[in-house]
Amino acid sequence: MTKKVLTTSAGAPVSDDNNSISVGPRGPLTYDNHYTFEKLAHFNRERIPERVVHARGTGAYGTFTLTKSLKEFTIADFLQNEGKRTDVFIRFSTVGGGQDSHDFARDPRGFAIKFYTKQGNYDMVGNNTPVFFLRDPSKFPDFIHSQKKNPRTNLPDPRMAYEFWANYPQALHQVTILMSDRGIPASYRNMNGYSSHTYSFWNEKGERFWFKWHFKTNQGIKTLRAEEAAVADPHGAQQDLVEAIDRGDFPSWTAKVQIMTEQKARDAEVNPFDLTKVWPHDEFPLIEVGQLELNRNVDNYFAETEQAAFAPSNFVPGISSSPDKMLQGRLLAYQDAHRYRVGVNYNQLPVNAAKCPVNHYQRDGAMAGLCPAGGHHHQTSGANFYPNDRDDGPAPDQAVAEPPMPVEAGAWLDRFDTDEEDHYTQAGNLFRIMSDDQKQQLANNIAGGLGQCDASVQQRMLAQFEKADPDYAARVAAALQA
Ligand code: NDP
Ligand code: HEM
């Protein structure tokens, strides 16, 4: 095979890559070394800001196959016909640590799916847990600060995490999941994915249904105990996924949905839009709708996985948001982060570009291109304003108008303190379905961090466990004494 010729980034052939031009063999370099300067200057610019959360992650491509039509609930094109296959890109991540942290931290795992549908990209940006620590987006920066490194020592500091949780009991349900055996998945293949939030479907008749996604691992749940994680390879989850896909052992998940009618939501005792709560399975059974498979690794980690930009606001006709306050906060946060982290034209990069025509009147900005993957033009030389008289100027389509979102009749615009709501029943339910061994792991994992906290934090946490289940508190208290 003829070797490819090395070139500059402008495509010109390069004669020597090892020796810069110097004044004699021992002499200084000259301005003629523009090629060396190009290499050094590009190197200086190799990093972009890492994600402020979920910085450490692994991505791969795959396919979603619909096995049950959801036509009754949604007009979303990729959910109409059984057997329909849709390309996806998935990125798994840990949350709190930086890019060079550990794959096996006790931390929720991100489970973000980009569905490249015929009606644009739909992103399901979820976690491996069905709930979250908070129900108001204003608390997200505070909560994340408490999970990250101590600002003075730059060291992990469980005292900060428990200090926040002791002051914020609505986190208890998610804390219980995090501290349980499921808090450290043995690999990305061995965990479930959840939308966690309630979203909405709407159908041809303009009827809206609330729903949640569940992606159940077909590999089975496998977890690491704290002592196993302490000695695990920090890159183990990345390696496990890449190697499984490379050897053709494609990981897969069974996709399920829970569905709630608008009427049921109005009557529900527990707020169906509260992210700290699940919808009980017995009342809202899981409906199996598809299979998700990962079958192709990325060619270039940085270009694809690092620059992937997932946004909970990436909806397609037939799928939309809900009144969940956390979700509303997220609808604004992600695109803002992408513009900062990747750049204003991030949707033109191949991993982010829709695989359908993209027609709009946005123009210019850093790195504006004409023709991203698939040949679908984002920025053309045609009309750059709307309305216009041009035949080829794109126009809105009323057929995809979303039905009005119901809101509480006579509601007031105000700040509502929801902290009196029940934080304990579902955390207790989870504790009660655990085996004896799981309960003991939970208590030991909590004692590991809580044991480093002062007595006041310990007492407030024990009071929360007591309200969830007296045995929960008793086990943690005993583990703290051990
Ligand atoms: P169910 O008994 O019907 O469901 C229990 C669910 O809990 C199962 O999906 C099971 O997952 C999952 N589970 C088991 N152990 C753990 C753990 N350590 N951490 C997280 N999830 C676990 O009960 P309910 O629907 O009434 O829910 C009871 C509790 O189960 C909830 O309070 C919640 O904490 C948890 N849960 C509920 C979910 C829901 O959508 N209702 C989803 C996931 C968790 P699997 O089948 O994969 O083993
Ligand atoms: C990533 C904000 C809650 C799942 C991010 C990023 C931001 C962010 C800024 C980085 C995005 C980027 O740079 O590309 C927020 C805010 C939240 C919130 C403000 C609450 C108000 C949640 C919740 C979930 C979640 C509840 C799960 C249900 C994720 C995932 C990623 C992520 C999976 C990584 C996506 C990827 O792989 O690129 N979040 N987040 N976040 N978030 Fe959130």
Key words describing this protein structure:
binds NADPH dihydro-nicotinamide-adenine-dinucleotide phosphate; alpha+beta; Catalase HpII,  Chain A, domain 1; about 475 residues; ten-stranded antiparallel sheet; Cytochrome C Oxidase, Chain J; 13 helices; binds protoporphyrin IX containing FE
How many helical elements?
A: 13
The number of strands is: 10
Which whole number gives the mean pLDDT? 96
CATH homologous superfamily label of the largest domain: Catalase core domain
CATH topology of the largest domain: Catalase HpII,  Chain A, domain 1
| Count of distinct structural domains | 3
SS-based structural class? alpha+beta
Family: Belongs to the catalase family.
EC number: 1.11.1.6
Domain Catalase core: 7-394
Pfam families: Catalase, Catalase-rel
